[in-house]
Amino acid sequence: MLMPDTSVVARLIARYRAQENRLVDAPHDQRARRRFEDTAYTLCVLMCERTAREAVLAAESYVRRSVRSAGRPLTNAPLAGAQPLAERAASGGC
Asked: Measured in Å, how far apart are the chain's first and last C-alpha atoms?
């Protein structure tokens, strides 16, 4: 099975988290919502998950496993685990 590039997934996670924060700050910003939903959809497709929440958790797990198996430090991606904002984020299907 082909797996996505770890650096691409890590960048998408960072983008998802930043857009999630933006959406919490401005919930009526339609442009921000579209960007967030597009990023969530991309994560769903890459990770073969049906919801944004499942996709981002799977992506974080995938990146962590890849980093551990390579024995190298991860840069440019916050992966401290699921943040509380994820609980408030839209977890609709992808």
From this structure: 21
- Cα distances from 3 to residues 9, 68, 75, in angstroms, run 10, 16, 20
Q: Decide if 7 is inside a domain.
A: yes
Residue 38 inside a domain? The answer is: yes
Q: What's the whole-model pTM score? A: 0.71
Range(s) of the domain holding residue 24: 1-65
Per-residue pLDDT of the chain (94 residues; tens, 9 = 90+): 688 899 999 999 999 999 999 999 999 999 999 999 999 999 999 999 999 999 999 999 999 998 888 765 555 544 444 443 444 344 444 5
Residue 17 placed within a domain? yes
